[in-house]
Amino acid sequence: MPIRARARVNLAAIERNVARLRRELAGGARLCAVVKADGYGHGAAPSARAALAGGATALAVATAREAAELHSAGVDAPLLVMGAVSSDELPVAVAARAELVAWSERFVAEVAAIASHPTRIHVKLDTGLGRLGTRDGAQALRVAQLVVDHDPLLTLAGAMTHFATAEEDPEFVAHQLTTFAPFVAEVRSLKPGIVIHAANSAATLRHPESHFDLVRCGIAIYGCDPMHVDPEPRGLEPALELSSYIAAVKRAAVGDSAGYGRKFIASSETWIATIPIGYGDGIRRALSGQGEVLIGGRRYPIVGAVSMDNITVDLGPEALVREGEPATILGHNGGERQTAEQLAAAAGTINYEIVCGISARVPRTYHRDGEPA
Ligand SMILES: *Cc1c(COP(=O)(O)O)cnc(C)c1O
User: Fold this and answer.
1) Residue 140 CA, ligand 1 centroid: distance in Å
2) What is the pTM (predicted TM-score) of this model?
3) Is beta strand 99-102 parallel, antiparallel or unpaired with respect to 79-81?
4) How far apart are the CA of 293 and the centre of ligand 1, in A?
5) How far is the CA of 291 from the centre of ligand 1 (A)?
6) What is the mean pLDDT of residues 36-41?
7) Catalytic site residues?
């Protein structure tokens, strides 16, 4: 029997995407695989292992708990927590043996006060994203110096920044790099051999001058297009397929409606299929009356409101579709394919939110090119 909703993740695709991204890296830069938000919805630990098999040498997450999960899953690689870590969360991150990002002297002192083993710190300069990090280069250097002062309990491992517009505005990337450069020179003289990193997936593909010693790739390792268009021409392979099945097919006469609020009313006789996947599974409600589903190698429009547990699609006047048939939300079906980029465009969002939004209710299964993982 079909499963109401499931996500199949091809770990071999993640491995190949990482290998493909590594081929962009001139000058010996290494690749850190970003597996935050449960591996962008793909499952953090399996994605992390696949990325390491593809040649990633480090992992990054956003939160202390995410680090703890990978640590307890026994994933063995340097692990960076990129996000803000509060005093309450710090012991969890330290216990997970994670590397941390600092931009204040207060935070460095806090880490030094609780660290029971040598802890690696990356200093962050905000060169224009306007989020985490300090905008003040002198402050960033004072933080770096304080880390060095705590050697060997703390190690100054890296210096970093993050781009605001890597996928769309090369001029602002250049501006951020210009702001980053003097800090890089000074921190390198403070600690020769320090790992400098800046690039996300888009910068890895578009800005080789931003690669430095390490790139931090998230979206692209899962085979989504960091430029939001189409992964295929970029040599990236979507790793996740999201599917459901046709639970019911019924005739709609003129005037019959489908879904809450009667947002769809048949204007001519047609057949409506109900597919048991909804916003409780991560199908954006913005796809109500928007977007498509693949059935039997053809595209069919979602009609009516997306509800928590179901969507309805218009099969047209000839019911070519039978109950029990698979329905593909993301991935291949016959000769058709649907990408996270297409679904994102229909929902008015970005591919990142489509894959991260697949909820915990959807079981993930893993394979390698169709073979058991
Ligand atoms: C999420 C994140 C990344 C990865 O970004 P992608 O666009 O998914 O490659 C890199 N660096 C930082 C600081 C991040 O928060």
Assistant:
1) 21
2) 0.97
3) parallel
4) 29
5) 27
6) 98
7) 36, 260
Rounded alpha-carbon distances, angstroms, from residue 258 to 209, 255, 271, 314: 53, 10, 11, 9
Site to probe by mutation for ligand 1, drawn from 21, 24, 82, 161 as the one with most ligand atoms within 8 Å of Cβ, is 82
Q: To which residue do tokens 């098999």 refer?
A: 53
The residues near 310 (Cβ < 8 Å, ≥ 6 apart) are: 247, 259, 274, 275, 276, 277, 278
Residue ranges and CATH numbers for the domains of the chain are: 11-223 (3.20.20.10), 240-372 (2.40.37.10)
Give pLDDT tens digits for 171-206.
999 999 999 999 999 999 999 999 999 999 999 999
Query: What gap in Å lies between CA 198 and CA 285, rounded to an integer?
Result: 35
Pick from 9, 56, 61: nearest CA to 30: 56
Which are the contacts of 130, defined by CB distance < 8 A and separation ≥ 6? 164
Nearest-angstrom CA–CA distance, 326 and 294: 9
Residue 1 pLDDT > 90, yes or no? no
* Residue 13 phi, psi dihedral angles, 5° rounding: -65, -40
Distance CA 225, CA 164 (A): 17
Q: Which two tokens stand for residue 260?
A: 């809450």
- Radius of gyration of the chain from Cα atoms? 23
- Structure tokens given for 160: 């970093």
User: Cis ω on the peptide bond leading into residue 152 (within 30° of 0)?
Assistant: yes
Q: Which has the closest alpha carbon to 30: 49, 61, 7, 52?
A: 52
Q: What is the DSSP string of 55-84?
A: T--EEEESSHHHHHHHHHTT--S-EEE-S-
CA-to-CA distance for 8 and 18, rounded, in angstroms? 19
What are the b/e assignments for 139-172, b being 16+ CB within 10 Å? Answer: bbbbbbbbbeebeeebbbbbbbbbbbbbbeeeeb
